[in-house]
Amino acid sequence: MEKTGGSRKKPLKRKGATEEPQEAAFVKDGATESEVQPPKASAFPPGFSISEIKNKQRRHLMFTRWKQQQRKEKLAAKKKLKKEREALGDKAPPKPIPKTIDNQRVYDETTVDPTDEEVAYDEATDEFASYFNRQTSPKILITTSDRPHGRTVRLCEQLSTVIPNSHVYYRRGLALKKIIPQCISRDFTDLIVINEDRKTPNGLILSHLPNGPTAHFKMSSVRLRKEIKRRGKDPTEHIPEIILNNFTTRLGHSIGRMFASLFPHNPQFTGRQVATFHNQRDYIFFRFHRYIFKSEKKVGIQELGPRFTLKLRSLQKGTFDSKYGEYEWVHKPREMDTSRRKFHL
């Protein structure tokens, strides 16, 4: 007897299971996967607020899309403005100067005028006059805080290759008040002390000998030579050039002259080396580069290292004296940092 073939029962759907979505209506018959394009996302409505989305992943996705849309709109407006300027040619209006914190700086009454007779008299009679008159040549002593670690020691050694006629000595529990008379007796003109915290350099004391002044800086963003990408070969023994940027006030002028007095006043241009102290918003960025002449008109630079950033904390008259010293200027954040557009150097 033939078995009667009953109809096969459909498998029961589990509770909560959903059917697979059918192909969208915009897919043509015979189209491959590469030809299928997803629908374009519509623009966000004016009152749309991403912060109201509760789901974290969905909120992050919508924020990414919103940022992409903002970039596209900004690029389209930029291209449109460029075409309009090209169409106008010489009749195009001048480009507006963007507002930055630097060019919106509050005017300082102590800004130095190079033609001022009082400034010229101060330069001729200050502690650095003998250096700029080429009567004395700098001789630098570089030391560290007591019991320094490897990173601070390497920074001192690399600084000695940047600053000519500099010598590194390690402190063995000796106080600075005892080091300074020994430096003066041995004809050192400047003393540099690198302090550290948690095995990282975090401070620099620069004292001009024998009569001061003494500046105390906070040090940050220290990068040794091995930590700098695409750096050049080690520096040579040539005397580098010195570049001082944006030291405009009387205080900044004094700090700039302190840095300049560390290097001999006769740079050897054949070495193509340059040390830069760039002041921006009261942060002093130190960089050490070498010129690379690619052709008669094109010149590149190659960083040699090390690099670091300084922030002036105080300027003291005379040599280092933390207890009885007389301070010319002390940074007081609560009183001085009331405006973002107020700078002191």
Automatic annotation (TrEMBL):
Pfam families: Brix (PF04427). Residues 1-15 have a biased composition (Basic residues). The keyword Oxidoreductase does not apply. Signal peptide: none annotated. Residues 83-93 have a biased composition (Basic and acidic residues). Residues 138-321 form the Brix domain. GO terms for molecular function: rRNA primary transcript binding. Keywords: Ribosome biogenesis, rRNA processing. GO terms for cellular component: nucleolus; preribosome, large subunit precursor. This is Ribosome production factor 1. PROSITE patterns: BRIX. It comes from Phyllostomus discolor. Residues 1-50, 82-101 are annotated as: Disordered. The keyword rRNA processing applies. Its main location: nucleus. InterPro entries: Brix, IMP4/RPF1. Gene3D superfamilies: Probable brix-domain ribosomal biogenesis protein (3.40.50.10480). GO terms for biological process: maturation of 5.8S rRNA; maturation of LSU-rRNA. PANTHER family: RIBOSOME PRODUCTION FACTOR 1, U3 SMALL NUCLEOLAR RIBONUCLEOPROTEIN PROTEIN IMP4. It is found in: Nucleus, Nucleolus. SMART domains: Brix. May be required for ribosome biogenesis.
